[in-house]
Design goal:
Radius of gyration: 33 Å
CATH topology of the largest domain: Rossmann fold
Number of domains: 3
CATH class of the largest domain: Alpha Beta
CATH superfamily of the largest domain: SGNH hydrolase
Helix content: 10-25%
Strand content: 25-35%
Largest sheet: 6 strands, antiparallel
Number of helices: 8
CATH architecture of the largest domain: 3-Layer(aba) Sandwich
Distance between the termini: 125 Å
Number of strands: 25
Length: 431
């Protein structure tokens, strides 16, 4: 009996002296993830809550056979191949000491897609801009004008004539993407400038631009085609960054009219239209409010409400005269309504009324002569001046005889000459 008690006491003392079990670690986090490319470590950004790591590599890096460095929680292990194809999303599994696992998605890109909501991507020369993460919509006209019957051919009004997309980056390469939307389809011709100097033109909706050698940061300006309605759907850069540009206050110029002013006759290059050339030379922020095929409508003047216009030009009426054959009485009525509405919103802004310019087309079957339309504009300007309007001016279109692409629209040279004529005229009356 005594022996049994000693035996029980021995086992009790022995069991009480055993070391306690050590708790196994539950940590299974990804601490650091990087990819080595050309002896440079590209460290990823780990989002632990979302279980995602993103890595950005140099432009157009071949990503099908990459080596990576991985750091995980102490005592944890991970599963990832030695050579990985990162051109598609991959997953790394991390297992804690207690055998509980977690997974992180690895997303590797060889460019950086800019957020289109970033207002460092500036939209200039455009009155109606809306953005979301997938696109920037750039419209020159409000809904009232897009639905206006006299501005028929409004598919031409949905284009981005003269609009400028502007941003500054140190990326060596920039990919830009546009997508066609509702509106005209005449072909593509995007104009591009770097630091205010002409760079190149592109005839595809998706193109890649290369920064000129010797520059650190460069400011890019892109203007879409004359007659091809688009949205901006993407800008991708290398491992560079955007800068906030200092916006200088530019005077604002509004050009109202039809296809002659919109830029028909200069191919698909809106940057060769006379308003664009004139505005750029004179330092204006230029808003092209012209629509090919349109007839005079006062509703376009509603675009001037609450704007700080510094110069307005009107060259409008060719379609009223030649294709419709409206009488000079009707033309006077529509032009008077337009001028009155302009003055309602912009009472003191210099307003240059250009009578119909030289054309090789004969008098239409209606019998209305072009001289009758020119006389209407001359009289309207004279009447306004007599009523005390000191800032309305007449540019006699009969003296504007430039080279034409067809019998109506200025050619590339003709538009350039028109820009010079307008520059000389405005310089005399304003400076």
């Amino acid at each position: 009996m005594k022996f049994n008690l000693y035996l029980i006491l021995f086992f009790y003392l022995f069991s009480s002296c055993k070391s306690p079990e050590i708790a196994l670690s539950r940590d299974n986090k990804l601490i650091k993830f990087s990819i080595i490319y050309n002896a440079v470590e590209n460290v990823g950004v780990v989002n632990d809550s979302a279980k995602v790591v993103t890595v950005t590599l140099p432009w157009n890096t071949y990503m099908a056979d990459m080596k990576c460095n991985v750091e995980v929680s102490p005592n944890a292990s991970y599963i990832l191949s030695d050579s990985v194809d990162f051109s598609k999303p991959q997953t790394i599994t991390i297992t804690a000491q207690n055998k509980i696992s977690s997974q992180y998605k690895i997303i590797v890109s060889n460019s950086q897609k800019l957020n289109l909501l970033d207002e460092r991507i500036e939209i200039r020369n455009c009155l109606h801009v809306s953005r979301d993460t997938s696109k920037i919509v750039m419209l020159r006209f409000n809904e009232l004008n897009l639905a206006e019957p006299r501005i028929n051919y409004m598919q031409n009004g949905q284009t981005q004539t003269g609009v400028l997309i502007k941003f500054t980056t140190n990326s060596n390469f920039i990919k830009v993407k546009f997508a066609e939307t509702k509106g005209a389809r005449w072909g593509t011709d995007y104009g591009v400038w770097v630091d205010g100097v002409w760079h190149n033109s592109y005839t595809s909706h998706n193109f890649t631009m290369q920064k000129p050698a010797g520059k650190d940061f460069a400011t890019w300006e892109i203007t879409p085609s004359l007659m091809n309605a688009v949205n901006l759907t993407g800008i991708e850069i290398e491992n560079g960054k955007l800068l906030t540009t200092q916006q200088s206050a530019q005077p604002q110029f509004f050009a109202i009219g039809n296809s002659i002013t919109q830029g028909v006759g200069q191919g698909n290059a809106g940057y060769l239209s006379y308003p664009f050339l004139f505005g750029r030379k004179m330092g204006y922020e230029t808003y092209n409010l012209a629509v090919g095929g349109s007839k005079v409508s006062w509703k376009v003047a509603t675009e001037l409400e609450n704007r700080k216009a510094d110069l307005i030009t009107v060259l409008w009426g060719y379609n009223d005269w030649y294709f419709v054959g409206e009488t000079s009485v009707t033309y006077r009525s529509t032009m008077l309504a337009l001028i009155n509405k302009i003055r309602e919103y912009q009472p003191n802004t210099p307003l240059v009324c250009i009578s119909l310019i030289g054309t090789e087309n004969p008098t239409p079957t209606s019998g209305v002569k072009i001289e009758e339309y020119r006389t209407v504009v001359e009289q309207l300007v004279a009447d306004r001046k007599a009523a005390g309007d000191k800032n309305i001016f007449l540019l006699d279109g009969s003296t504007v005889n430039v080279e034409l692409m067809d019998k109506v629209h200025p050619s590339v040279k003709g538009a350039a000459d028109m820009a010079i004529i307008l520059e000389d005229f405005v310089t005399k009356i304003l400076y």
